[in-house]
Specification:
The chain is an alpha+beta fold. It has one domain: YhbY-like (Translation Initiation Factor IF3), CATH 3.30.110.60. The chain contains 3 helices and 4 strands, in the order H-E-H-E-H-E-E. Strands 1-2-4-3 form a 4-stranded mixed sheet, sandwiched between helices. It is globular and about 40 Å long.
Length: 104
């Protein structure tokens, strides 16, 4: 689970990212899940788009893909959404999240 500070940090990074995949009229297919899963392992943070023809909202697509890929939904704005999942091997991690230090 991401803190709001971590979510804000990831949103800032994703701002400059291009949309990699689209959820189209076929909805969320096995192929899309596989591609998203592999890309998350390589990049950790990806931006996707939900087309109007998909028949589901961007929020529904983000939640379904995040669950299928064991990822976190960073944000959903309009038809675009951002997913994050740290690389399974800590040595391969490209993104270092801000710590979860709590003020006393």
């Amino acid at each position: 689970m991401l803190t709001s500070k971590q979510r804000a940090y990831l949103r800032g990074i994703a701002n400059n990212y291009e949309t990699l995949y689209q959820v189209g009229k076929n909805g969320i297919t096995e192929n899309l899940i596989t591609q998203t899963d592999e890309t998350l392992e390589a990049r950790e943070l990806i931006k996707l788009r939900c087309l109007e023809t998909a028949g589901i909202t961007a929020r529904e697509a983000a939640d379904a893909l995040a669950e299928a890929c064991r990822a976190n939904v960073v944000q959903v704005i309009g038809s675009k959404f951002v997913l994050y999942r740290p690389a399974s091997d800590p040595k391969d991690r490209k993104i270092t999240l801000p710590s979860e230090k709590k003020k006393k």
